[in-house]
Amino acid sequence: MHNNNYNLLRLLFAVAVIYSHSFELLGFPDPLERMSSAMSAGTIGVCGFFLLSGYLTAQSWSHEPLALAFLKKRALRLYPAFIVASALSVLVVGPLGASTQHYFAEWSPYKFVADLIGLRQPRTPAVFAGSPVQSVNGAMWTITFELRCYLLLTVLGLCGVVKRRWALLLLAVAVNVAAILGAPHQRGAEGLPLFGVSGFMIWFASMYLSGVCFYAFRERIPLRASLAAVAFIVFVAALFGPQSVLRAVTSTMGAYLILYCGQLQSSWLAKLRMRDDISYGLYLYGWPVMQLTAHWLPSIVPLVAFTCVTAMCIPLALASWRRIEAPALRLKRATVPRGNLALGRLR
């Protein structure tokens, strides 16, 4: 068991995404989004994933700064569970919600393989007619950006930027400024591209690099309850402000809150720490299970759907972790020097 709360935080982020989708796929706005008009609970969960991923993968690179070893670890973390979830989404969920009688005749296995390689959400023939989002697994769209952030960190590591933390900070600030200036006026919009880079990529990279910087400067960042309280108040206030302000606050105050909560030591938190990291499985299976629930029970209310879908996804996520993800992660050790085996599992 690790002496931190990162698995618990990832679990909360994944649950927040399911919560948000339970409203979205039933045709209702997320309550937080409706109140703040800025960010849904699911978006906060995704931001949390990228901030924490930047912190933990920067730690992974610092312990073994080898490009092939790093990319192998990242591939073992993302691909196995993604491939299985994609196959189940396309081959099981898709036919159950197909809007066409010729689903498999219209389905392209070539596009499916291409989507797997790029870690993109699978493309299928028409499904779930009448659904607000007609996709077998719309939650998967962020995973390809996670992969691109890993590649970005690899390039920065090879160029020596990761070792020069002030250069890293300048880069992170520049990307965050680009994300802030290109922030859309509406939540969910892509934002302005820059030099051919999509607005979404700039946004996700800004959060990821913020997490990397928080790791690089971790020894200079005081973790205090008073500062965490201030960060929380500022973050909540920013939810009711424009997108540009919210993005700036998320990548700074949000990152600080994650670092503080992740390292917080208390007896009651210790009891909640989990050996099994089921967050990825919850993220991958929450959408298709919710989509089927909304399809078969269109009159179900969002909170009931959220409770039922979360309960159904927990065993799926456990099976994904124990049968797919954990065995794949054990293969990481082949690339880790003996002295580093005790570092544990990193996202």
From TrEMBL:
InterPro entries named among the record's database cross-references: Acyl_transf_3_dom (IPR002656), Acyltransferase_3 (IPR050879)
Full protein name: Acyltransferase
Statement: the UniProt record of this protein carries the keyword Flavoprotein: no
Source species, domain of life: Bacteria
Keywords tagged on the record: Acyltransferase, Membrane, Transferase, Transmembrane, Transmembrane helix
Keyword Membrane: yes
Acyltransferase domain mapped to chain residues: 4-320
Transmembrane segments: 38-58, 78-98, 138-159, 166-183, 195-217, 224-242, 303-321
Gene Ontology MF annotations: acyltransferase activity, transferring groups other than amino-acyl groups
